[in-house]
Design a protein that fits this description.
By secondary structure, the protein is α/β, with parallel strands linked by helices. It has 2 domains: 238 residues, Collagenase (Catalytic Domain); 238 residues, Neutral endopeptidase, domain 2. The protein has 23 helices and 9 strands. The protein has a 4-stranded mixed β-sheet. α14 packs across α19 and α17 packs across α20. The longest helix has 25 residues. The radius of gyration is 25 Å and the shape is globular.
Length: 654
């Protein structure tokens, strides 16, 4: 059938759907991403300070300007909007902008950290040193934090996890295609060591020792795929059992030092990793262990350290790893740093000037309708048996939603802030956050806590909380506008809401019950069918390749691909509830809103990193991969069977 051009007379909100971005010469049935975003792709170059750019990056830029104005007010003592923490917010921002003051204090701070490591005289006190570094946000070998207990969702549990790698994933240390990156990484280590004052000949020797040990750590680490498996990563064991697994590590000494005394049980993400890590530490010389910890301390503080270390950090992680050609303006880094350290205080100010009640009401309505559609969809599934449907409907019934901002904002009274040291303020924030997470171990879960700050342009589903969270930051144009058409809002934000809800039933989230416990509620028959349907998506996305010929990893991205497909189907079902006889142009608007919500491009370097490490597919495939599985799309755009966006065989789960 012939393709019909999208009607120019269509009236819709430019904030969500922008007709000028459409490539009218493109064929929506062959490459819908190119059709919906073609003119945006042509006219929007990636700025030198970014490795990726999306249409919704407009939200980030707008949010940054709002936050900059707020923080500038607080800098000058103008408490507007009114904020109890305005003085600390202003000081933190000032300290970051005070590059000359930070240059002096950061150099001393780095020297103090390295001196502490150099003073280690025996492996007997090795774990004491690790504890001190971990409290400051420096995590050689492993890290520790508290999380909701997957085995008892009413309580928190301390968790230790692998860590300490400077490259994104273990494959970077062994795969042939990453040999050039390994060579550049060694140069980066050497140059960073030289900047801190180490002699050239010593830096060369230390670099080789550091990389050798890091490579050994990578070999015993879990893969990116295994880290997504909730069964493999949940291993609650007692402290004594952990000591038996890793006898070369004095865990009693470590736990006392960080004041973890509230429980004898903790979750060990990878017991085999810690068994092998103990052996590795035992056979590695003290001098080599210290060299690696020196490097880790330098690496993990470089972003807020001296200008020379900041530049060297960017040269490797920005230019080489992600293809970014220039650093972003320093004030943007400072706002991100304030948000990371005092995000809820900054967020409380943000919502007072940028998030109205009408936006929250509209978002709540979308969530309600998408949730109702999910309930109906589960009820009508022909492949899920009654036993499993009962469990699924219980989960939907208990699904919680957090929209916009918390009911109560956290206090930062324990954080000491100066106006001359970004370095020391960041370490102080790290210590505060570390101490707080350790205190939570074994305590009842506080279900009012948010995992993102209000200005964040993102959303998430938490399987242990069984909740979706949409901060105010993501509920902005061009992704969302309370005054936009229903077609536009359902196609964009409605699909994102459905995406997060579907995470409760993806390959990982489906293993948690309605209360957030890691518990099987599926019948074997339904689970087997589900796995077969999921395999269809694995095969589909594994068949995609970038322009450079690099294949996607359909298994790594399975959970997100399930959520993308389920999310758009749910949004469409919810949209149908507003009008059973949706006009043709409104249907097109719905799909274009979805496509344009993912208008995006990346540098070749960033694409490679995403494929190797990210659970999300590249933008083009998040659009084409999903809509090609929906017959409603083919009908709306009059696609013939066999065209790329209208394949004969489609993947379908929900």
């Amino acid at each position: 059938m012939a393709q019909t051009a999208f009607a120019a007379k269509l009236t819709t909100s430019k904030e969500v759907v922008d007709l000028s971005l459409i490539d009218q010469t493109g064929n929506p049935c062959e490459n819908f991403f190119q059709y919906a975003c073609g003119n945006w792709l042509k006219s929007t170059p990636i700025p030198g300070d970014k490795s990726a750019l999306y249409r919704f990056s407009e939200i980030d830029e707008n949010t940054l300007v709002i936050l900059k104005n707020i923080l500038q007010n607080y800098q000058t003592g103008n408490n507007s909007p009114v904020q109890a923490e305005s003085d600390k917010l202003g000081k933190f921002y000032s300290a970051c902008l005070n590059t000359s003051g930070n240059e002096v204090t950061a150099k001393k701070g780095v020297d103090d950290l390295l001196e502490k490591i150099h003073l280690l005289q025996s492996k007997k006190n090795f774990m004491l040193l690790l504890a001190s570094l971990h409290r400051q946000g420096i995590n050689p070998f492993f890290g520790i934090y508290s999380m909701q207990n997957p085995g008892d969702a009413t309580r928190m549990i301390a968790t230790i996890d692998q860590g300490g790698l400077g490259l994104p994933e273990k494959g970077y240390y062994t795969d042939q295609e990453n040999s050039k990156i390994r060579a550049e990484y060694k140069k980066h280590i050497k140059q960073s060591l030289l900047i801190t004052g180490i002699r050239t000949e010593d830096a060369v020797i230390l670099t080789n020792k550091i990389f050798k040990l890091e490579n050994a750590i990578a070999k015993i680490s879990l893969s990116a795929q295994d880290q997504q498996d909730p069964i493999k990563t949940y291993n609650p064991i007692g402290k004594m059992a952990l000591q038996k697994i890793s006898p070369a590590m004095d865990w009693n000494q470590y736990f006392k030092s960080i004041n973890f005394t509230t429980s004898d049980v903790l979750n060990v993400v990878g017991p085999d990793y810690f068994l092998k890590l103990a052996s590795l530490i035992n056979r590695t010389s003290l001098s080599d262990l210290k060299a690696y910890m020196v490097w880790d301390a330098i690496r993990e503080t470089s972003r807020f350290s001296t200008i020379a270390l900041q530049n060297e950090h960017f040269n490797f992680y920005g230019k080489i790893m992600n293809g970014t050609t220039e650093r972003e303006p320093h004030w943007k880094q400072c706002i991100a740093s304030v948000d990371n350290s005092m995000g809820e205080a900054l967020g409380e100010s943000f919502i007072k000037v940028a998030f109205g009640q009408n936006s929250k009401d509209m978002a709540d309505t979308l969530v309600f309708n998408v949730k109702d559609s999910l309930k109906e969809m589960i009820t009508k599934l022909d492949w899920m048996d009654d036993q499993t449907k009962v469990g699924a409907l219980k989960k939907i019934g208990k699904l919680n939603q957090k929209i916009g901002f918390p009911d109560h904002f956290r206090s930062y009274e324990n954080l000491e802030v100066t106006d001359d040291s970004w370095f020391m303020n960041t370490l102080a924030s790290n210590v505060m956050q570390f101490d707080e997470t350790i205190k939570k171990a074994n305590l009842p879960v506080n279900r009012t806590i948010w995992g993102m700050t209000p200005p964040t342009d993102n959303a998430y589903y938490d399987p242990t909380m069984n909740e979706i969270v949409f901060p105010a930051g993501i509920l902005q144009a061009p992704l969302f506008n309370a005054n936009s058409s229903l077609a536009a809002n359902y196609g964009s934000t409605g699909a994102t809401i459905g995406h997060e809800m579907t995470h409760g039933f993806d390959d990982s989230g489906s293993q948690y019950d309605e209360l957030g416990n890691l518990k099987n509620w599926w019948s074997k028959e339904s689970a087997d069918v589900y796995k077969k349907k999921a395999q269809c998506l694995i095969d589909q996305y594994s068949s995609y390749k970038t322009d450079e010929g690099i294949a996607l990893d359909g298994k790594l991205s399975l959970g997100e691909n399930i959520a993308d497909l389920g999310g758009l189907k749910l949004a469409l079902a919810a949209f149908y509830k507003t009008n059973l006889n949706i006009p043709e142009d409104d249907m097109k608007t719905f799909f274009i809103a979805y496509g344009q919500s993912w208008c995006g491009k990346m540098t070749k370097e960033a694409e490679r990193t995403v494929i190797n490490t990210d659970v999300h597919s590249l933008p083009k495939f998040r659009v084409n991969g999903v809509i090609s599985n929906l017959p409603e799309f083919a009908k709306a755009f009059q696609c013939s069977e066999g065209q790329a966006m209208a394949p004969k065989n489609r993947c379908s789960i929900w």
